[in-house]
UniProtKB/TrEMBL annotation:
Keywords: Kinase, Transferase. The keyword Transferase applies. It comes from the Bacteria. It comes from Longispora fulva. This is 2-phosphoglycerate kinase. SUPFAM superfamilies: P-loop containing nucleoside triphosphate hydrolases.
Amino acid sequence: MIFAKYLVKLLVMTWDPFGTLRRVLWIGGGQWAGKSTVSNILAHRHGLCAYHFDYPNVRGHEDRLAARGLADTRTPDEIWVRTTPARMAAEVLAGFPTRFEYTLDDLRALVSGPPVLAEGWGLRPELVVPIVADPRQMIVMVPTEDWRAHQLVHLDRAGAFTHDVEDPARGQRNRIERDRLITADAVDRATALGIRVLEVDGTRDAERVADLVAEHFAPFLPPLPAKIGG
């Protein structure tokens, strides 16, 4: 019975009527490593369709969670302050598989000539590996500790904590440590599964980091368009 349930779940994960999933290129990893920026650069360079995991509300993911009784009904203080980073990380990691199912549904609905490039911290190596033909179809981007600290100071959306809680400073500390734990988990899982990990330390600009990611994905990317007069 347990095996049958696992088989059904695997079939649901891999069902691919238009062949889109087999050709997706995946960028996972940690917060503030530049995944979205790099995916946008590569999408423009190679004419790819870019899919951003971090915008689920637009696609009704929160509504689907609510319909299944999985919506988070806790108060902001319960979520961010009256907890621990380890518990927060465990809760986020536990929720990624369901959100990944919804992501696969979104991707199945796409038909694209070039591959689709999907990015986001919830695209975990252990979830992606079962549905790709080649581990080179994924890369995990993570910030070094120094670059994470830099981003928190200089990148507004990284350093902002906008939740209305009783202790914003503690909430921010919990969030930062939660993100560090989730990033470390992604590195551990990628390493165990033979997925490349690319550390981003700020010494390369976004275009150069995109070059490195493009080199990794080279067997699957369409050629760059020829320059007029070049």
